[in-house]
Amino acid sequence: MTRPTSRDVATAAGVSQATVSLVLGDKWPGRVSERTAALVRETATRLGYRPNLAARNLRLGSTRTALLVVPALTNEFFARVYTGAARVAAEHGFGVVLYPSPDGTGPARDPFASARAALDGVIASSMAAHALHAIGGDTLPLVMLDSDPRAAGSAAHVNLAMADGMRQVTQHLLALGHRRFLHLASAVDSWTFDTRAEALTTLLGPGTELRTVRSPLTADDARTAMEAALAAPGGRPTAIVCDDDILAAGACKAARRLGLRVPEDLSVTGFDDLALATAVEPELTTVHLPAERVGEQGMTALLAVLEGTPWTAPDIPVTLVVRDSTGPAPTPAP
Amino acid sequence: MTRPTSRDVATAAGVSQATVSLVLGDKWPGRVSERTAALVRETATRLGYRPNLAARNLRLGSTRTALLVVPALTNEFFARVYTGAARVAAEHGFGVVLYPSPDGTGPARDPFASARAALDGVIASSMAAHALHAIGGDTLPLVMLDSDPRAAGSAAHVNLAMADGMRQVTQHLLALGHRRFLHLASAVDSWTFDTRAEALTTLLGPGTELRTVRSPLTADDARTAMEAALAAPGGRPTAIVCDDDILAAGACKAARRLGLRVPEDLSVTGFDDLALATAVEPELTTVHLPAERVGEQGMTALLAVLEGTPWTAPDIPVTLVVRDSTGPAPTPAP
DNA sequence: CAGCCGGGGTAATACGTATAACTTGACGCG
DNA sequence: CGCGTCAAGTTATACGTATTACCCCGGCTG
């Protein structure tokens, strides 16, 4: 009643276990005759044979499995990163296993144990890098996603052109005449967000004003932050740059609650281009981040590293998608 | 430069490999003295020893790993199912690996191979059941999520009380005076959606009218379907029941494009209670589905099945959350 | 003092696979 | 005719762990 092994197949087919292994591994240029090969294959399927992956992994010393470390899968962005990584992995006979909650709600246990499998390498989002390091994940081949290229030593990097994304946002808003900016920034401490903040600061020239509010990436926080910011003295901002579509949607909603129209009175931009961006009204002007491609390139990079090939690639380009949440700056009425 | 094995630890500590295994496995009631145990542990951490999971799995004949088969992780609902399953799994020393694209874009290969690890059991969403069967996954302990309890033979089931959810929706809308309904139904062929459609049909009494449009679960499809439905002759519906929040959001947007106000002219309800539901305006009246609990119970059920315990549990209750997208039926004006 | 017991450990083994090393006929060629 | 060659397999082994069965020795008991 137990699963058949390669030896069972061998016995049933009247050959040796080695032959079975050779046939099923497609390793028989001239080792096995076509006749016996066919016999072995037929027997294997007849018995419903499936190789024991644990045994194979042990023998080969490699599991063809990568660990993807991300903050939370419920964030559509990371779900898409996973999808991309898993696709490339599958094309190369690899699997991807997740470690989604290093700082989240789950029990913060050893990912290498929770993976329940030996790992060949790790792909880690910078937003979970601290957990990685605390655990000793740096003993495995490592690819970092969206992390500071100057840090992290020898690890391969896959980065989005975040600074350029912010440049596109800024230029778009400046061209529309905006001068008073509010940056709804993520409270998460990460290279990604630092880079954006820095880019925004340097790109806004003289004659402009920038206020920054840091908050967690939830719509509620956006609302609270907005109310405080718009009630502040000294003239309210006309453009709100958000680190995330969720924040942007929250900002739009908060604005309307306060009696402001978007985009007539207030322009709002986001980041990510999630499904949410086109579900809300007005549809969000936002920076499209090709999340799947991040996953794909991350896996590609890891495969290269595993082969010993040095890997490097330019930042993944991002593009501003102009929709309905931005418009000309309002003329300073009464 | 290669990873240390338990034998390396043994040699370094001056004991046998068996002792190392005993100590690290916490299997020493009186087998090993406290002194040597401490020595072994110290040596292990000093060398950075990590047990080879492949070898352990082979030896134990179990990997403590479950496969979760879902349609797509980018659907927030399934991401949350995963999260719940992974949490319970981790509490029991189990891991969860995903097979997310049986009918999606990815290469539809053998999930048991793509998992790259021997599996102890499978948790499968009904929306991917066909793929499971075609592959032979029924040879493993199986838990079905939201599938027909009468089918699938002996497999354990974890179901949401979908019919009751639809009942709450219907009663809510009937109480508001609605009599003309449009059901934006999912085109996916699944017990989940069939149950809802059936419940809706039977719950709507005489004197009511129901039209049904089946479409994929995307906002764009909702829009198209809406335009067709509202332009149809014979009086337009006043209540739109959607199988999904994404559809509902699309329906709201389409309505507004057609010059109809929600909820004054048209009431809209969703299903799932995704983050989207509160991000859009008006916030959606929708049926809250505790997705994490589905994952948790799925994993709990699988653990029970693996222990040979028969498992059964009542349907998971769902609750209608009334927000701003539903209101009294408009009085039939001119 | 012999026997026995139990604490503290070790040697040996099996899990199922992939592959290197070896074997065995049959055959071609000098 | 003898030897190298080659096709077609087979035998043997190692991967790293968990666990069973065994061993040794000091002390207690009768």
How would you describe the overall organization of this protein?
Two copies of one chain form a homodimer. With 334 residues, chain A is an alpha/beta fold. The first copy, chain A, folds into three domains: 6-51, 434 Repressor (Amino-terminal Domain), CATH 1.10.260; 65-160 and 292-315, Rossmann fold; 162-289, 3-Layer(aba) Sandwich (Rossmann fold). Chain A has 13 helices and eleven strands. Chain A has helices at 6-13, 17-24, 34-47, 53-60, 76-91, 111-114, 129-135, 162-175, 191-203, 219-231, 245-257, 276-279, 291-306, and strands at 65-69, 95-99, 121-125, 142-145, 156-158, 180-186, 209-215, 239-242, 267-272, 285-288, 319-321. The first copy, chain A, has a six-stranded mixed beta sheet, with helices on both faces. A five-stranded parallel beta sheet of chain A has the order 2-1-3-4-5. In chain A, helix 11 (245-257) links the parallel strand 8 (239-242) and strand 9 (267-272). In chain A, helix 1 crosses helix 2, helix 1 crosses helix 3 and helix 10 packs across helix 11 (245-257). In chain A, 50% of the residues are buried. Chains A and B meet through helix 4, helix 5, strand 2, helix 6 and helix 11 of A and helix 4, helix 5, strand 2, helix 6 and helix 11 of B. Chain A binds a DNA duplex (30 and 30 nucleotides) through helix 2 and helix 4.
